[in-house]
Every structure is written in C-alpha cells, then in structure tokens.
Amino acid sequence: MSKAKESSGIPNAVSFIGMLERSIILMMLFAGEYGAIGFVLTEKSIARYKKLSEDIQFSEYYL
Q1: Does residue 2 have a pLDDT over 50?
Q2: Which keywords appear in this protein's UniProt record, sorted alphabetically (predicted)?
C-alpha cells in the first residue's frame, strides 16, 4: 500500500490568497487606484506564467 501524498505548506492557503487578492483589488477600486489593480493582476499572471504556458486546461480556466 502506498501512502497518499502529503501536501506541503499551509492548508487552505490558496483560498486565503484568493480572498487577499480580492480584498486588495476591492480596496484599490474604492481608492480609485486603477493602475494598482492592473499591477495586482499582472503580478498574478507573471507568477503563474509557467503553468499557464504548459497546461492548456489551466490556462483556459484562468482566463
């Protein structure tokens, strides 16, 4: 029998990061800092570039 692969890192980190991103975008929207919203979205895309370019299904989901 093989053990299930244990994930490393913080449990539910992905959902926490998603909520944090949405909160930052919402704050920037209320502050009228539209350029900062673009910056957040650009950084998100840069951080996931490798996965976007390799995994077609993920890139369709992401877009």
Answers
A1: no
A2: Membrane, Transmembrane, Transmembrane helix
